[in-house]
Amino acid sequence: MRQLPREKIMYFGDTARTPYGPRPAEEVARFTRQIVEYLIQYRPKMIVVACNTATAVALEDIRSRVAIPVVGVIHPGARAANGRTQTGIVGVIGTDGTIRSGAYEHALKQLSPNIEVISLACPRFVPLVEQGNFRSQETKEVVESSLAPLQNRSIDTLILGCTHYPFLSETIAEAMGNHVALISSADETAREISTILHDRNRLTREGELPVHQFFCSGDPRMFRIIAQQWLGEQIELTPVVWQVPNIV
After folding, report:
1. Do 169 and 226 belong together in one domain?
2. How far apart are the C-alpha atoms of 19 and 127, rounded to whole Å?
3. Catalytic residue among 35, 51, 107, 180
4. Is 216 designated active site?
5. Model confidence over 181-208: pLDDT tens digits?
6. Is 162 considered catalytic here?
7. pTM for this structure?
């Protein structure tokens, strides 16, 4: 919304089936296809797979199914980390599914074969964010204990390899120390989206500011609370009634 203020965003939160991290890859891929099939009816100019786990297991499949650009969040984050690190030692934290896939390590090694990647699954982070629990003492204790295996390693750059994790960035920074730069894949992806639309001459340059739409598959109440805390404004939220079997 900051990077592209004139572009309309249609955001789908699959709150009924979160978290994706512990789920089998084929299930995550199926869920991602369902979401894209739902969104494509609105004729978007681009699809952003704004989930690291879904990007890791479903990005190429989705690209093969639609005729518009499809962007994931892993390669933008990897490029930013590769450009930032001075020691060549990069940490990656993410869900079980993202870490298990090895997608960040693969992306980083493509950019710099000699880079050292230290990966750590942090499955307790997503539930904290989903509950709107960002800065409590419980959150601080969970973050510190989860990141303990990384604190004595010589990393100077840490990729927040889950789109939930930037909500916890202040606590993560406190746990890791000032010498470790945090890389948000989300921020880097927004920059990549802007570049792609510009290169394809698809940027919206005139007209009134758009009204964004938000959809969720589960209980809208917590989704609305978290979104308003994050965005600082009221949102219009549309609960989605699925027409496909076995959605939950």
Report:
1. no
2. 8
3. 51
4. no
5. 999 988 889 999 999 999 999 999 888 8
6. yes
7. 0.84
